[in-house]
Known about the structure:
Oligomer: single chain
Number of strands: 4
Strand order of the largest sheet: 1-2-3-4
Mean pLDDT: 91
Amino acid sequence: xxxxxxxxxxxxxxxxxxxxxxxxxxxxxxxxxxxxxxxxxxxxxxxxxxxxxxxxxxxxxxxxxxxxxxxxx
Length: 73
């Protein structure tokens, strides 16, 4: 909240849930592992998972997918 109030990025890095879901609303940028995204959205497809998460969250989203790199939404 302090970062956003100061106009600074508020980054949330999610490696493994569970975590306090209210942090999604506080973050301006959310970086997730593929496992975290899968557990949060119930899908193995990272593109579909980012789309589902974007429906719940207004932050800039990214997911790391190993050797395939990173996807951004």
